[in-house]
């Protein structure tokens, strides 16, 4: 027996792990969470990728750069004049770092409040033991702790291109992309996925000439086609150069910058010379240092921990959640799985509905959706009705001066049940919640159409799109 024994030990303190630990403690379990993320002072920085190099810092920079773009291009429409507008990148980065620290500290506070024992260090399986597992903690002080249940929430890492390792100086993962100390003159981005578009937008708004190279011939293939088309139009109008259907060749990382050789969609040999290159081609599940072999924890060919629909692994009382398992790599998906697993350990019926997990891309315009796309419904042969409403016809959007995009509803042709909602436009990230709630309650488009929405608000576009399913919009 180890000296310190817990009912639940969570390995990884990202959004999946720290939320699982808090929920387990709320349910009365003696709970520990081990996380190895370290801040620049050598102290703990729980919150994982999301808090340290993902959701939170990227949104802080998106906000700063959006303010700059507004001041640069749109304040004059409001009669506001500014002379000598400038951007202090180091200050912008310090603000971002402060936002990150506030979140790290918040999680440490929540651990205390909920009586979760926190270990700063790397957790790994030592061995299976009587009634559970022994977990080795390699931190400032090495120790071994006992666990009846183990929840693995070790997250994911950025995937590098073969032959172009991240040096975080010129060839950047999401980590380096959030730390560029001055606006690059020319920025290359490989992969027009979520990170590529968000980080590309940040540096474009601040003045970089940004070129995005994407392997697929289709822009944002997982997004509703009509939304992807509208977004592509808006991004290219803003000056983001997006080349689709390319094949990346040799990448030369030299003192002066990076040169990317590639073949364009027509088969022509091309070369792109940039000061910095962000490689955002997806992420791989992280089990480095977990010593999964010691206990026979099963991984799949991608390195993800194999779990069933309930996040159970092949080992008794070992669970895995978040980016390290199948499903979308999203913070809120990881959190929901964390809550569900803690509740299952307590014998309750935790549940995650994969069909109502919202997606948001925090570009400008924002893109958000839930449920199925029109192309998915067509492929399934499902009979559906579609209705959409443009922000151009919404009073609040006009007052905001942000009329790009639309809200689109897809509903079952017979029952009118909402099957998907797709938004491209202002505050899509907030507007999508109404659609998520509606779908969780199996609402019909008519239900939304008959609900009173505040005027003037962007949410009226949601109501009008629901009305459009029945071809009876009032303001368009
Ligand atoms: P992680 O957040 O990766 O946390 C895992 C933690 O485990 C880390 O702290 C790691 O250090 C620790 N760890 C790993 N191994 C061990 C070990 N053996 N011992 C101890 N500790 C260990 N998602 C969204 O929903 N919205 C967004 O806006 C968004 N923006 C993003 C922006 C960027 C640039 C990136 C890269 C990602 C973004 N994501 C976003 C995705 C989101 O960050 C992840 O889906 C989420 O962090 C996954 O949570 P997790 O708990 O599974 O893993
Ligand atoms: P991604 O999967 O979103 O996009 C990767 C893109 O790179 C794809 O379009 C893919 O076709 C392309 N690609 C792959 N290999 C390529 C190659 N060799 N050459 C050129 N293009 C190539 O992955 P990304 O952007 O790295 O983000 C990882 C994950 O992080 C996302 O899938 C998402 O789950 C999460 N994330 C979520 C955010 C949000 O919710 N707002 C923000 C940022 C990240």
Plain-language structure description:
The chain is 32% helix and 26% strand. With 476 residues, the protein is of the alpha/beta class. The chain folds into three domains: 4-158 and 284-352, FAD/NAD(P)-binding domain (3-Layer(bba) Sandwich); 171-281, FAD/NAD(P)-binding domain, CATH 3.50.50; 356-469, FAD/NAD-linked reductase, C-terminal dimerisation domain (Enolase-like, domain 1). The protein has a five-stranded mixed β-barrel. A five-stranded parallel sheet has the order 7-14-8-9-10. Flavin-adenine dinucleotide (FAD) binds at residues 11-17, 34-37, 48-50, 54-55, 58, 122-124, 153-156, 174, 195, 286, 289-290, 322-324, 329-332, 334.
Low-confidence sequence ranges? none
- Helix-residue proportion: 25-40%
By CATH, the architecture of the largest domain is named 3-Layer(bba) Sandwich
Question: Ligands in the structure?
Answer: flavin-adenine dinucleotide, 1,4-dihydronicotinamide adenine dinucleotide
CATH topological fold name of the largest domain: FAD/NAD(P)-binding domain
Going across the major beta sheet, what is the strand order? Answer: 1-2-3-4-5
């Amino acid at each position: 027996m180890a000296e310190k024994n817990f009912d639940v030990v969570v390995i990884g303190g990202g959004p999946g792990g720290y939320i699982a630990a808090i929920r387990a403690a709320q349910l009365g379990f003696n709970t520990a969470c081990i996380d190895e993320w370290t801040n620049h002072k050598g102290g703990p920085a729980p919150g994982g990728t999301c808090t340290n190099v993902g959701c939170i810092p990227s949104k802080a920079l998106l906000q700063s750069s959006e303010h700059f773009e507004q001041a640069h291009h749109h304040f004059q429409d409001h009669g506001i004049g500014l002379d000598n507008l400038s951007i202090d990148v180091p200050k912008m980065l310090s603000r971002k770092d402060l936002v990150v620290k506030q979140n790290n500290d918040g999680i440490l506070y929540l651990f205390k409040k909920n009586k979760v024992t926190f270990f700063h260090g790397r957790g790994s399986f030592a061995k299976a033991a009587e009634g559970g597992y022994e977990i080795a903690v390699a931190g400032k002080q090495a120790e071994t702790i006992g666990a009846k249940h183990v929840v693995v929430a070790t997250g994911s890492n950025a995937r590098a291109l073969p032959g172009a390792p991240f040096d975080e100086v010129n060839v950047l993962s999401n980590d380096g992309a959030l730390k560029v100390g001055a606006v690059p003159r020319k920025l290359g981005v490989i992969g027009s996925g979520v990170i590529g578009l968000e980080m590309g937008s940040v540096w474009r708004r601040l003045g970089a000439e940004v070129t995005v190279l994407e392997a697929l011939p289709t822009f944002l293939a997982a997004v509703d086609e009509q939304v992807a088309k509208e977004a592509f139009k808006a991004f290219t109008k803003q000056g983001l150069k997006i080349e689709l259907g390319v094949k990346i060749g040799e990448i030369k990382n030299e003192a002066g910058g990076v040169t990317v050789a590639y073949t364009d969609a027509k088969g022509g040999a091309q070369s792109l010379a940039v000061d910095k290159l962000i490689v955002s081609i997806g992420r791989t599940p992280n089990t480095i240092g977990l010593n999964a072999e010691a206990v026979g924890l099963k991984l799949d060919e991608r390195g993800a921990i194999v779990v069933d629909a309930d996040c159970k692994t092949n080992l008794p009382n070992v669970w895995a959640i978040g980016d390290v398992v199948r499903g979308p790599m999203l913070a809120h998906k990881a959190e929901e799985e964390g809550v569900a697993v803690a509740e299952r350990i307590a014998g309750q019926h935790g549940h995650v509905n994969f069909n109502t997990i919202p997606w948001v891309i925090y570009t400008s315009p924002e893109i958000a959706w839930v449920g199925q796309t029109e192309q998915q419904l067509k492929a399934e042969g499902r009979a559906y009705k579609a209705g959409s409403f443009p922000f151009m016809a919404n009073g609040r959007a006009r007052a905001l001066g942000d009329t790009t995009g639309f809200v689109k509803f897809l509903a079952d042709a017979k029952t009118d049940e909402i099957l998907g909602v797709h938004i491209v436009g202002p505050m899509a990230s907030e507007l999508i919640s109404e659609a998520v709630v509606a779908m969780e309650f199996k609402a019909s488009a008519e239900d939304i159409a008959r609900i009173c929405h505040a005027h003037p608000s962007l949410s009226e576009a949601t109501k009008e799109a629901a009305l459009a399913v029945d071809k009876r919009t009032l303001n368009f």
